Amino acid sequence: MPKFKITFVSETIEEFEVEASSQEEAVDVVCDGEIEPVNVWERSDIVGVEQI
């Protein structure tokens, strides 16, 4: 039976809603882990299949 190598790429996408006085402050709040995401989803794609 033949073997195949599958290349699978995935990323987690997180969306946040933040109250802040500036964009920089909003980014700092998210990066500091002070807030939980309101939406989280996984995007994935098979980017290659080859017989080995």
Report what the structure shows:
- The protein has one helix spanning 23-31, and strands spanning 4-15, 39-51.
- The protein is α+β, with helices and mostly antiparallel strands and 52 residues long.
- It is built from one helix and two strands, in the order βαβ.
- A two-stranded antiparallel sheet has the order 1-2.
Helices and strands, in order, run as EHE
Q: What percent of residues adopt helix (DSSP H or I)?
A: 10-25%
Shape: rod-shaped
Taking pLDDT < 50 over at least 5 consecutive residues as the criterion, the unreliable ranges are none
Sheet with the most strands? 2 strands, antiparallel
Strand order of the largest sheet: 1-2
Strand content: over 45%
Helix and strand composition category: alpha+beta
Number of helices: 1
Beginning-to-end CA distance, first to last residue: 11 Å
Number of strands: 2
C-alpha Rg (nearest Å): 19 Å
State mean pLDDT (0 to 100 scale). 93
Give the secondary structure arrangement, pairings included.
Blueprint lengths: L3 E12 L7 H9 L7 E13 L1
Antiparallel strand pairs: 1-2
